[in-house]
Amino acid sequence: MREPTPLVEPRPLGELFSELANETGVLVKKEVELAKSEMTSNLKTMAKDAVVIGVGLVFALAGALSMLAAVILILALVLPLWLAALIVAVGSLGIGAALAIGGAVALKNTDPTPRQTIATLKENKQWLIEQAHR
Question: pTM value?
Answer without folding.
Answer: 0.39
